[in-house]
Amino acid sequence: MGLPATPYSSAEPLKQSRKSVAVIDQIPAPEIIMAYRGVLDFYVHRGQAIVRAWPRPPSAPRVPAVTAAASTFGAIAHRLSSTAPLVQQMLARAYAGSEWTWRDAATSGQYGHAIELTP
């Protein structure tokens, strides 16, 4: 099963980098987008239709410290989803008007860092 030909052969490459990106005239029909799912990513950036190669996972293995930090953060995020609504409301009120959300405060607290509020 091959991929269908696209009528957008006049695509101009934007730059050479790890990701192949091209400007296209218009976003193709949904059938074409679905046929290229997992291979190409179609989107609009600042009014211009763009197509790029589907993101690939990192090729190098992650450092053990990064893997440990990701699993710790994932566990914290999972626990935050079961935080009692009353606690969520209390933290939301406490951090209203600041740049921090209740999730920021709770996550920072789990790492042992307090976020101080300045009046």
How is this structure best described in words?
There is one protein chain. With 119 residues, the protein is of the alpha+beta class. It has 4 helices and 4 strands, in the order ββαββααα. It has helices spanning 30-35, 64-80, 85-94, 102-110, and strands at 12-13, 21-23, 40-45, 48-53. Strands 1-2-4-3 form a 4-stranded antiparallel β-sheet, with no helix packed on it. The longest helix has 17 residues, at 64-80.
Give the SSE map.
Blueprint: E1 12-13, E2 21-23, H1 30-35, E3 40-45, E4 48-53, H2 64-80, H3 85-94, H4 102-110
Antiparallel strand pairs: 1-2, 2-4, 3-4
Helix pairs in contact: 2-4, 3-4
Terminal-residue CA separation: 63 Å
Mean pLDDT over the full residue set: 80
Helix content range: 25-40%
- In terms of quaternary structure, the protein is single chain
Tell me briefly what this model is:
This protein has helices spanning 30-35, 64-80, 85-94, 102-110, and strands spanning 12-13, 21-23, 40-45, 48-53. By secondary structure, the chain is α+β, with helices and mostly antiparallel strands.
